[in-house]
Specification:
- The chain has two helices and 29 strands.
- The chain is mainly β and about 270 residues long.
- The chain folds into two domains: about 30 residues; about 220 residues, Single-stranded right-handed beta-helix, Pectin lyase-like (Pectate Lyase C-like, 3 Solenoid), CATH 2.160.20.10.
- The strands form two sheets. It has a 19-stranded parallel beta sheet that branches.
- The longest helix is centred in the N-terminal third of the chain and has 29 residues.
Length: about 270
Amino acid sequence: MRRSTGQGSRTRSLRTAGFVLALGALSLSAAPAHAAARLPCGAGLTVDTTLTEDLVCPDAGNGLVVRGDGVVLDLAGHRIVGGGSSGVLVQGRDVVVRGGTVTAFGEGISVWGGASATVERVTLLRNITGIDSDGEAVLRDSEVRANSRGVLAEGDGVVSVEGSDLARNPTAVSAYDGGDVRITDSTVRSNQRALDCDAGTLHVRRSVVLDSGTAVRVNGCAGSSVAGSLFVHNDVQVVDPALATRQIAFSCTRFLDGRSAPAAVPCP
């Protein structure tokens, strides 16, 4: 009787254990895909990913490539440090990159044509280009410092800069060859050239441009606009104001302490 009871107990225990394991497997398979692990340089991401340490990629190539749509890449305060092409190459749509530093790449963050990304609370530091977009990019609550060129939109690319600080870049913002850059509630300071537009469009709202060598240069940028903004302590406010005002619609904007400025436009 005792032996029989013990065997039954073991059988029931095994069945229970198997049931629990089955439930565990079911729970794991039902959980949303997410990776939080050490990643190799050049890794392709198709699920939400959180860095657990700095990623150092000294060789040519990319830091990380985001291939999936809707992927969230959380840097979690870590750095992606490189010597290659792009720190984060975005090929998917509705991608989010947040919370860390990307430094020492050809392009800190690159958004391919047809792709889209929101970059928030990220420091783009000492890259050749901080963020380069042929697609759609939003740069929000971020710092763009000491890059050769901070923000670049080209071709069909659009970059919206919101609530960010762009400082100490030889060229802070460039809209080139069809690219469109939109700057809102941001500070562009201590750059050699703050806003540069060549055959693109540039829109500035409620922002401050200060302490730069040249604040604005435009060439073939009809349809651009500047509204509700302040330009102060720049050596040259606008290159060729007569030409610039035929391309840029200035409104509710003041120029202080700098040469070559358009007439101040009062607010309505």
